[in-house]
Amino acid sequence: MRLFFNPLFKISPQESIAQVSEGSWRNELEVASGKYHHAAAWFAILLDPLFAVTDYINIHENWFHIFILRVSVSLITLANLWVCRKLSLPSSYIAGVPLLLISLQNAYTYNFLDNDNTHLVGHNFNYMALIIGAAMFVLWHWLYSAIVIVISVFTTAYFIYNNPYLSLNEFFPNGGLLLCVVTIFMLVLIQTRYNLTVKEIKTRIALQISNEEVQLQNEELQAQEEIIRGINENLENLIHVRTLELKKKNQALEEYAFINAHKLRAPVASILGLINLIKKGNLDEDTRNMVSHLQLSADKLDAVVNSITKAIEKGDDYKDTSDQNQSLL
User: Fold this and answer.
1) What angle do CA 108, 113, 118 make, to 5 degrees?
2) pLDDT per residue as tens digits for the range 296-314
3) Is the dihedral of CA 14, 20, 25, 26 positive or negative?
4) What is the signed CA dihedral for 206, 212, 214, 216, rounded to 10 degrees?
5) Where do transmembrane segments lie in this chain (predicted)?
């Protein structure tokens, strides 16, 4: 499984995998290895007694003794499987106990071999079957494999040394060297599968975490979009309300312009006309002065009305000067 680079987080796949906690990937590893180790235990329970056929060929005189030993190993493995399930022990116990017992069983069998090298070769191949089976089903750290191998090596060497018909000079040429090579191959293969499985689990967890973070960011983006949508709707409502207010003000201005241009303009024009008529009469000096002031005020009022009308038509605010206001007072 490949972990692609996610530009949202600016982090490399290696850094994402390195951030996976040990507890999470170990739990996943336990689930994955548990399937293999349960299968290995059941294969040991069922097949180990069947290998008594090879004992009948290699050690005919003592084969039944070894058969009882094989049956005992199967029963112990079955009991160990039940105990591990009951106590929820790590799956390494499920595979480790039968592997170690069968290895010790095979080492013990060297004690009964005679001086027939054919039987030695056959038993070495029988031992290889166990090693190959372990390489196929066992999934754990190399340290556990090393412990089993060390115990098996010393036990095998002990029983070969105690068998007067066997020696290391006979053991290695008759399948012993190949057995050592297969054992090393088992150690390398189990560790390789272990490393690949751990890497795959870490990558899968890192990708899952990355997807969850992307989903979380998408949810946050959706929430922000909802907020922005609400703001936009509110702005549209405000604009609509403001537009209605402006329309009302424009209508009021239009009405005011009409009033200013017709209803207010007409009395001013009448006042100006009356002033002109009064001027044509015989007036004394004081009256003429008052009429002049009245004429000046009427002209200013007319100018103000005209300026208001023009300002409304242009859309500008009308600003009356203080001098004009004071003149009108």
Assistant:
1) 125
2) 887 787 787 777 777 777 7
3) positive
4) -150
5) 63-83, 90-108, 128-159, 171-190
User: 3 falls in which pLDDT band (50, 70, 90)?
Assistant: very low
Report the pLDDT value the prediction gives residue 261, as an integer from 0 to 100: 65
- Is the distance from CB of 113 to CB of 119 less than 8 angstroms? yes
Which residues have CB under 8 Å from 180's CB, separation 6+? 172
How far CA 289 is from CA of 76, 277, 279, 280, 326, in Å, comes to 138, 15, 11, 14, 19
SS (H, E, C) 220-277: HHHHHHHHHHHHHHHHHHHHHHHHHHHHHHHHHHHHHHHHHHHHHHHHHHHHHHHHHH
Q: What is the pLDDT of residues 97-119, one digit of tens each?
A: 999 999 999 999 999 998 888 88
The number of beta carbons lying within 10 Å of the beta carbon of residue 86 is 8
Contacts for 114 with CB less than 8 Å, ≥ 6 apart: 59, 165
Mean pLDDT, range 278-284, rounded to an integer: 73
Amino acid at residue number 113: L
* Residue 128 Cα distances to 178, 182, 254, 329, angstroms: 9, 7, 108, 125
Of 122, 95, 94, the closest CA to residue 109 belongs to: 122
List the one residue out of 74, 25, 22 whose CA is nearest residue 49.
74
- Check: pTM over 0.85? Answer yes or no: no
Compute the C-alpha angle 96/97/103, nearest 5°: 90
The residues pairing with 6 across neighbouring beta strands, listed in sequence order, are 11
Whether the predicted pLDDT of 185 surpasses 80: yes
* Distance separating alpha carbons of residues 218 and 279, to the nearest angstrom: 87
How far is it, in rounded angstroms, from Cα 12 to Cα 15? 5
Q: What is the pLDDT of residues 256-277, one digit of tens each?
A: 777 766 666 777 777 777 777 7
